[in-house]
Amino acid sequence: MLKAYISYRKNAVNAHGIHSPFVFEFYNEVVLKAKALDDEYIQHVRRTLLKDNREIEITDLGQGSKKGNSNSRKISELVKVQAVDRKYGRLLGRLVSYYKLDTCLELGTSLGIGTAHMAEYAKKVITIEGCPNIYSEAKKFWSPRFGNIEFVNAEFSSVLPQVLSSMDKLDLVYIDGNHGYEPTMDYFKQILSKAHNDTFIIFDDINWSEGMRRAWDEICSSKEIHVSMEFFRMGIVLKRHEQAKEHFVLKF
Protein backbone atom coordinates (compact mmCIF):
# COMPACT_ATOMS: atom_id res chain seq x y z
CA MET A 1 0.00 0.00 0.00
CA LEU A 2 2.81 2.43 0.87
CA LYS A 3 4.57 1.74 -2.43
CA ALA A 4 1.32 2.40 -4.29
CA TYR A 5 0.80 5.66 -2.42
CA ILE A 6 4.33 6.88 -3.18
CA SER A 7 3.76 6.09 -6.86
CA TYR A 8 0.44 7.93 -6.78
CA ARG A 9 1.94 11.05 -5.18
CA LYS A 10 4.76 11.04 -7.72
CA ASN A 11 2.47 10.78 -10.76
CA ALA A 12 -0.65 12.70 -9.70
CA VAL A 13 -1.38 15.95 -11.55
CA ASN A 14 -3.74 18.87 -11.02
CA ALA A 15 -5.69 20.84 -13.63
CA HIS A 16 -2.52 22.21 -15.24
CA GLY A 17 -1.50 18.70 -16.30
CA ILE A 18 -4.84 17.76 -17.88
CA HIS A 19 -5.33 18.19 -21.62
CA SER A 20 -8.66 16.44 -22.03
CA PRO A 21 -11.53 18.99 -21.96
CA PHE A 22 -13.86 16.47 -20.31
CA VAL A 23 -11.40 15.53 -17.56
CA PHE A 24 -10.35 19.17 -17.11
CA GLU A 25 -13.98 20.09 -16.47
CA PHE A 26 -14.43 17.06 -14.19
CA TYR A 27 -11.42 18.04 -12.12
CA ASN A 28 -12.41 21.69 -11.74
CA GLU A 29 -16.15 21.25 -11.26
CA VAL A 30 -16.29 17.94 -9.36
CA VAL A 31 -12.96 17.20 -7.68
CA LEU A 32 -12.09 20.73 -6.58
CA LYS A 33 -15.63 21.60 -5.51
CA ALA A 34 -16.44 18.33 -3.71
CA LYS A 35 -15.20 19.56 -0.33
CA ALA A 36 -17.75 22.40 -0.36
CA LEU A 37 -20.67 19.98 -0.54
CA ASP A 38 -23.16 20.26 2.30
CA ASP A 39 -23.25 16.80 3.90
CA GLU A 40 -23.90 17.76 7.51
CA TYR A 41 -26.83 15.35 7.98
CA ILE A 42 -24.76 12.45 6.67
CA GLN A 43 -21.89 13.38 8.97
CA HIS A 44 -24.32 13.60 11.89
CA VAL A 45 -25.35 10.01 11.20
CA ARG A 46 -21.70 8.98 10.85
CA ARG A 47 -20.93 10.46 14.29
CA THR A 48 -23.92 8.63 15.74
CA LEU A 49 -22.75 5.34 14.25
CA LEU A 50 -19.21 5.88 15.58
CA LYS A 51 -20.69 5.90 19.08
CA ASP A 52 -22.80 2.78 18.50
CA ASN A 53 -21.10 -0.12 20.28
CA ARG A 54 -23.77 -2.71 19.57
CA GLU A 55 -22.33 -5.91 18.14
CA ILE A 56 -23.88 -7.67 15.15
CA GLU A 57 -23.05 -10.94 13.44
CA ILE A 58 -21.34 -10.49 10.09
CA THR A 59 -21.81 -12.67 7.03
CA ASP A 60 -18.73 -11.88 4.94
CA LEU A 61 -19.30 -12.89 1.32
CA GLY A 62 -16.31 -11.02 -0.10
CA GLN A 63 -12.63 -10.68 0.63
CA GLY A 64 -13.35 -9.54 4.18
CA SER A 65 -11.69 -6.94 6.31
CA LYS A 66 -7.97 -6.84 6.92
CA LYS A 67 -8.69 -6.14 10.60
CA GLY A 68 -9.81 -9.02 12.78
CA ASN A 69 -11.32 -12.43 12.08
CA SER A 70 -14.35 -12.46 14.37
CA ASN A 71 -17.83 -12.87 12.90
CA SER A 72 -19.09 -10.36 15.44
CA ARG A 73 -18.43 -6.65 14.95
CA LYS A 74 -19.37 -3.42 16.64
CA ILE A 75 -21.28 -0.93 14.50
CA SER A 76 -18.65 1.68 15.39
CA GLU A 77 -15.86 -0.57 14.11
CA LEU A 78 -17.69 -1.23 10.84
CA VAL A 79 -17.93 2.53 10.24
CA LYS A 80 -14.21 3.00 10.92
CA VAL A 81 -13.14 0.12 8.68
CA GLN A 82 -15.73 0.00 5.88
CA ALA A 83 -17.42 3.38 5.51
CA VAL A 84 -16.31 5.66 2.69
CA ASP A 85 -14.11 8.56 3.84
CA ARG A 86 -15.80 11.93 3.97
CA LYS A 87 -13.84 13.41 1.07
CA TYR A 88 -14.62 10.45 -1.19
CA GLY A 89 -18.26 10.52 -0.12
CA ARG A 90 -18.42 14.17 -1.07
CA LEU A 91 -16.79 13.32 -4.39
CA LEU A 92 -19.61 10.83 -5.07
CA GLY A 93 -22.24 13.39 -4.12
CA ARG A 94 -20.73 16.19 -6.17
CA LEU A 95 -20.36 13.90 -9.21
CA VAL A 96 -24.04 12.91 -9.06
CA SER A 97 -25.09 16.52 -8.47
CA TYR A 98 -22.99 18.16 -11.19
CA TYR A 99 -23.85 15.71 -13.97
CA LYS A 100 -27.48 15.37 -12.80
CA LEU A 101 -27.28 11.58 -12.75
CA ASP A 102 -30.66 9.91 -12.36
CA THR A 103 -30.01 6.26 -11.60
CA CYS A 104 -27.15 4.85 -9.51
CA LEU A 105 -26.24 1.28 -8.59
CA GLU A 106 -24.05 0.38 -5.62
CA LEU A 107 -22.44 -2.99 -4.93
CA GLY A 108 -21.66 -3.02 -1.22
CA THR A 109 -23.97 -0.89 0.91
CA SER A 110 -22.13 -1.43 4.19
CA LEU A 111 -23.83 1.00 6.61
CA GLY A 112 -24.96 3.23 3.75
CA ILE A 113 -22.84 6.36 4.07
CA GLY A 114 -21.74 6.29 0.44
CA THR A 115 -25.31 5.37 -0.51
CA ALA A 116 -26.61 8.48 1.25
CA HIS A 117 -24.13 10.75 -0.52
CA MET A 118 -25.50 9.58 -3.87
CA ALA A 119 -29.14 9.55 -2.76
CA GLU A 120 -29.00 13.24 -1.82
CA TYR A 121 -28.89 14.09 -5.55
CA ALA A 122 -29.93 11.04 -7.60
CA LYS A 123 -33.50 10.17 -8.51
CA LYS A 124 -32.90 6.53 -7.56
CA VAL A 125 -30.16 4.49 -5.92
CA ILE A 126 -30.25 0.69 -5.92
CA THR A 127 -27.81 -0.67 -3.37
CA ILE A 128 -26.91 -4.32 -2.78
CA GLU A 129 -25.56 -5.70 0.51
CA GLY A 130 -24.76 -9.34 1.13
CA CYS A 131 -24.81 -9.40 4.93
CA PRO A 132 -28.39 -9.51 6.28
CA ASN A 133 -27.57 -7.71 9.54
CA ILE A 134 -25.61 -4.89 7.91
CA TYR A 135 -28.39 -4.54 5.33
CA SER A 136 -30.97 -4.21 8.12
CA GLU A 137 -28.95 -1.58 9.97
CA ALA A 138 -28.35 0.50 6.83
CA LYS A 139 -32.00 0.36 5.87
CA LYS A 140 -33.04 1.37 9.38
CA PHE A 141 -30.74 4.40 9.42
CA TRP A 142 -31.40 5.78 5.93
CA SER A 143 -34.89 4.75 4.76
CA PRO A 144 -36.69 7.41 6.87
CA ARG A 145 -34.70 10.15 5.14
CA PHE A 146 -34.34 8.78 1.61
CA GLY A 147 -37.34 7.31 -0.17
CA ASN A 148 -35.28 7.01 -3.36
CA ILE A 149 -33.04 4.20 -2.07
CA GLU A 150 -33.92 0.62 -2.96
CA PHE A 151 -32.12 -1.74 -0.58
CA VAL A 152 -31.38 -5.28 -1.81
CA ASN A 153 -30.05 -8.04 0.45
CA ALA A 154 -28.30 -10.63 -1.71
CA GLU A 155 -24.92 -11.91 -2.79
CA PHE A 156 -23.78 -9.75 -5.71
CA SER A 157 -23.31 -12.42 -8.37
CA SER A 158 -26.69 -14.03 -7.63
CA VAL A 159 -28.70 -10.85 -8.13
CA LEU A 160 -26.64 -8.54 -10.37
CA PRO A 161 -27.95 -9.87 -13.72
CA GLN A 162 -31.54 -9.46 -12.54
CA VAL A 163 -30.95 -5.95 -11.16
CA LEU A 164 -29.21 -4.79 -14.33
CA SER A 165 -31.96 -6.17 -16.56
CA SER A 166 -34.58 -4.29 -14.53
CA MET A 167 -32.88 -0.91 -15.00
CA ASP A 168 -33.86 1.28 -17.95
CA LYS A 169 -30.77 3.44 -17.56
CA LEU A 170 -27.52 3.15 -15.66
CA ASP A 171 -25.78 6.49 -15.00
CA LEU A 172 -23.38 5.49 -12.23
CA VAL A 173 -22.14 2.28 -10.65
CA TYR A 174 -20.18 2.31 -7.39
CA ILE A 175 -18.42 -0.99 -6.69
CA ASP A 176 -17.35 -1.26 -3.06
CA GLY A 177 -17.74 -4.90 -2.21
CA ASN A 178 -15.91 -8.13 -2.97
CA HIS A 179 -12.37 -6.92 -3.69
CA GLY A 180 -11.10 -10.08 -5.39
CA TYR A 181 -9.67 -10.02 -8.92
CA GLU A 182 -12.10 -12.47 -10.52
CA PRO A 183 -15.32 -11.10 -8.95
CA THR A 184 -14.32 -7.53 -9.81
CA MET A 185 -13.66 -8.41 -13.44
CA ASP A 186 -16.96 -10.33 -13.60
CA TYR A 187 -18.94 -7.36 -12.21
CA PHE A 188 -17.18 -5.03 -14.62
CA LYS A 189 -18.04 -7.14 -17.68
CA GLN A 190 -21.69 -7.40 -16.68
CA ILE A 191 -21.97 -3.70 -15.93
CA LEU A 192 -20.18 -2.72 -19.13
CA SER A 193 -22.87 -4.44 -21.20
CA LYS A 194 -25.52 -2.20 -19.58
CA ALA A 195 -23.50 1.01 -19.37
CA HIS A 196 -24.08 3.82 -21.85
CA ASN A 197 -21.33 5.97 -23.29
CA ASP A 198 -21.27 8.35 -20.29
CA THR A 199 -21.89 5.93 -17.42
CA PHE A 200 -19.49 6.51 -14.53
CA ILE A 201 -18.13 3.17 -13.27
CA ILE A 202 -16.43 3.69 -9.92
CA PHE A 203 -14.21 1.23 -8.06
CA ASP A 204 -13.31 1.70 -4.41
CA ASP A 205 -10.10 0.40 -2.81
CA ILE A 206 -8.22 -0.08 -6.09
CA ASN A 207 -4.98 -0.52 -4.09
CA TRP A 208 -6.55 -2.78 -1.44
CA SER A 209 -4.68 -5.87 -2.67
CA GLU A 210 -2.52 -7.09 -5.55
CA GLY A 211 -5.57 -8.75 -7.08
CA MET A 212 -7.65 -5.58 -6.88
CA ARG A 213 -4.83 -3.53 -8.41
CA ARG A 214 -4.45 -6.08 -11.19
CA ALA A 215 -8.18 -5.86 -11.91
CA TRP A 216 -8.05 -2.04 -11.97
CA ASP A 217 -5.10 -1.99 -14.39
CA GLU A 218 -6.84 -4.44 -16.74
CA ILE A 219 -10.07 -2.45 -16.62
CA CYS A 220 -8.21 0.74 -17.54
CA SER A 221 -6.56 -1.01 -20.48
CA SER A 222 -9.85 -2.46 -21.76
CA LYS A 223 -10.57 -1.42 -25.35
CA GLU A 224 -14.11 -0.44 -24.27
CA ILE A 225 -12.77 2.15 -21.80
CA HIS A 226 -11.43 5.42 -23.18
CA VAL A 227 -11.25 7.53 -20.02
CA SER A 228 -9.85 6.30 -16.70
CA MET A 229 -9.15 8.46 -13.65
CA GLU A 230 -7.32 7.43 -10.51
CA PHE A 231 -7.45 9.05 -7.04
CA PHE A 232 -5.32 6.52 -5.10
CA ARG A 233 -8.21 4.94 -3.21
CA MET A 234 -10.85 5.31 -5.88
CA GLY A 235 -10.85 4.82 -9.64
CA ILE A 236 -13.38 5.97 -12.24
CA VAL A 237 -13.79 4.77 -15.83
CA LEU A 238 -16.09 5.69 -18.72
CA LYS A 239 -16.54 4.45 -22.27
CA ARG A 240 -16.59 7.90 -23.94
CA HIS A 241 -15.74 6.44 -27.34
CA GLU A 242 -15.45 9.90 -28.90
CA GLN A 243 -12.24 10.51 -26.95
CA ALA A 244 -8.75 9.22 -27.51
CA LYS A 245 -7.90 6.58 -24.89
CA GLU A 246 -6.09 8.13 -21.93
CA HIS A 247 -5.41 7.44 -18.25
CA PHE A 248 -5.22 10.19 -15.63
CA VAL A 249 -3.73 10.11 -12.14
CA LEU A 250 -5.31 13.10 -10.38
CA LYS A 251 -4.43 14.91 -7.16
CA PHE A 252 -7.11 14.69 -4.54
Provide tags for this entry.
252 residues; alpha/beta; Rossmann fold; eight-stranded mixed beta sheet; two-stranded antiparallel sheet; 10 strands
| Biggest sheet character | 8 strands, mixed
Taking Cα atoms only, what radius of gyration do you get, to the nearest Å? 17 Å
Q: Can you tell me the CATH class?
A: Alpha Beta
Q: Could you give the order of the helices and strands?
A: HHHEEHHEHEHEHEHEHEEE
Question: Numbering strands along the chain, what is their spatial order in the largest sheet?
Answer: 5-4-3-6-7-9-8-10
> What's the architecture, going by CATH?
3-Layer(aba) Sandwich
Category by helix and strand content: alpha/beta
Number of strands: 10
The H-level CATH homologous superfamily, spelled out, is Vaccinia Virus protein VP39
| Count of separate DSSP helical elements | 10
What is the percent of helical residues? 40-55%
**Total domains:** 1
Portion of residues in beta strands equals 15-25%
- N- to C-terminal distance: 17 Å
- CATH topology value: Rossmann fold
Q: Please tell me what the overall shape is.
A: globular
